[in-house]
């Protein structure tokens, strides 16, 4: 009876047992029959369970005909059924080919000729199989391996989690670093707090034609806008170009110019953009002394074009445009997060923060100029000085010493293999560019421990960047009982044919723990920036966010909103978060337009 008891509790844990049957189980010996009939009525009974519960030869025949009516029986098996008793064996192999057989049981089935006990469909573990496993002593091995895997996964979840104390320390130190960055110039190992020289908040009433191009970590996007006022706009024309690896390391500005030329021709001629204010959204750290110039401080996001650090990126891009005789003049260059802050202000009253959460990750906010003491006094103290300026935080560099962030051995592996080891510690925990690699390193570790995929490394799992955030999002969104999406991703990427239930669960949990940490850290960064200016928190404030990770990753927006609310909502602060897909280009175009008409 032990195996019957185990089966019942397994089914109960999987919510396959209806509540009325539970007291029956504990009060009578008739529950096997009741359970069987319930499962049979729900079409959960595979062939071997029938003879287990009833000693009659009619059940296999009845079930076979039922399967036949449901198109589960391939035509070649039909005559075999009527002429021989070997059909259970053939049926097993058919079910195996259709991935209906749980992988952990396959070697058990092949070690015995008891084929009727092989015909099983997930998630049931029939009594005959449990009895078989007990007989061969395999339950102890499976249980031990499962316990080791569970222990490893719990340790991983602990390593990637943040306690409430750590979250509070994060925010306190982040705010302190922001203040220090406003007072003195900082190196790339801290929050640099770069002035953007964007000092005019949008009103939402701006009107006119303007354009911008946004260089991100993956794509170059070019847009021509018509601002309509009343916080509305229209995209006249747009195009997106995938950045080739050659551009990231050698020919970036020439490639940008070629794309803008192609975009111009979409309007009928190379002069179609003549006279249109043009802004450049640049998602890399750069220092400015004016709105139309910017000196590159360092490359991030996998870019490493030599000879550019320290140079004026606007001048280099403008020269490439001039070389092609294009009548396009760059009137403003801003960080993509600065563009987002301006977009948010144009579209939403109370826009205060702009953030990008995609291939890379960064944020900016509106700060009082009197607090930016590292600026020249003439920029902050004269009566005509603007009262506010957007500050590009460059928050990806936070916690260079790793004294607060949950830095794991997998993060260390990631840094060692990156272009900039030891740099951008926070960014490498949040950005979409790195999440897949973190997942891959963990999966490799589990395989090496013989806890995943039976200890066999799928060849592609050893390939760098073989899993991306699109696949990870699909995995963490999978709520199906049999983890169909997880199964599909493993088959597509790594040709894993028969993952076990433990494999599927482990992969899903690894993806979740990596992504949950990213979501929480992103939310803590936003919360810290909001708390930097406590005097304005009584008014409704808006946070504008763009980026594929924030927009497409399952649960990202909900988690960020929940964490931000946990730190700000208790004090009745009215904070709203807005996903603005056009933000990184719209804001730059607005800035260029305002710059072109400025006195």
From TrEMBL:
GO terms for molecular function: ATP binding; D-glucose binding; fructokinase activity; glucokinase activity. Pathway: Carbohydrate degradation; glycolysis; D-glyceraldehyde 3-phosphate and glycerone phosphate from D-glucose: step 1/4; Carbohydrate metabolism; hexose metabolism. Keywords: ATP-binding, Glycolysis, Kinase, Nucleotide-binding, Transferase. Its EC number is 2.7.1.-. Residues 352-593 form the Hexokinase C-terminal domain. GO terms for biological process: glucose metabolic process; glycolytic process; intracellular glucose homeostasis. It catalyses: a D-hexose + ATP = a D-hexose 6-phosphate + ADP + H(+); D-fructose + ATP = D-fructose 6-phosphate + ADP + H(+). Gene3D superfamilies: 3.30.420.40, 3.40.367.20. Residues 153-346 form the Hexokinase N-terminal domain. The keyword ATP-binding applies. CDD domains: ASKHA_NBD_HK_fungi. One of its GO terms (cellular component) is mitochondrion. Pfam families: Hexokinase_1 (PF00349), Hexokinase_2 (PF03727). It is an enzyme of class 2 (transferase). It comes from the Eukaryota. Belongs to the hexokinase family. PANTHER family: HEXOKINASE (PTHR19443), HEXOKINASE TYPE 1-RELATED (PTHR19443:SF16). This is Phosphotransferase.
